[in-house]
Give the backbone structure.
Amino acid sequence: MLAVIHRSTPPSGAGALALAGPPVVIRQLQWLHNLGSERVAIELGQDELGAQVRRLVSEQKVLSRGVVFVPAITPLSPRALGQAAGFPTEARWLALSESVVGNADLTRLFQRKSVPGALVGRLDPPKTGGPFSPAEVHLTSPIEGPVTVESLPGWGTLVDTPGTALQLACEALLGRLALLIHAAETWPGVWVARGGRIDDGAELSPPVLIGAGARVYSGARVGPGALIGARALIEPRACIEQAIVENETIVGEGLVVREHIATPWGLIPLKAGADMLPLRDPLLVARRAPLLPARLTHLLRIPP
């Protein structure tokens, strides 16, 4: 099976969005790998988001085998993308947008007799009650012709904003959606990855995911609806609710993060296209090695 992952129009960088741990592009590659894909072409924008997707995929030694990166200034059509990756011109290949995730058996499209035109597989969103959109995957043909639409079993949806990624992750953390989570469920709806630590006196309300090596201090409140990135620190009296904390980020004492992404440089609203809100007081700082104690960092007013 040949496949391409093409950019959305306009490019959104959805492939780099974390989805309960792994980014969307890694979950797509796992999906295709389980279906027996031989080669996958990934379209990359010539910007920082494109470079980030390349890094994320290259770190996965097994999944990156057979992956071909195709940089492009403007989005390519699925046929043009496959041709740029060196796929045989007479072959058919599967095409999915960078924002599509799901679990449907896409091999059903390949089992259909080769016909002119494109074959579209329609994927219904998960039946969890969340505000998710249906998705599509395409099987391209080297011969022009009509477009045929077929509904596929299983689920699929678009994950094109951090807010959508958070909503989908919460459904999985609550056990309403089959999505692999690389963590242990310590109690219903609360998942802790390897090395994650929750101090006595911390208050957690599911759904919550604590990333690898992250720590939640006593007196902090996390959840409902909180994704804490790897090696992040949530200090006493901080509150994280319906929010995402990026990897390597310290959320300082008393800071409330609600419906935002906490980064080492400021807060970003979950709403797509919103601008970052910088913080003058360094309550959000990047972790560094060796890491200064948080109290000392605040006293010295070290900028992020």
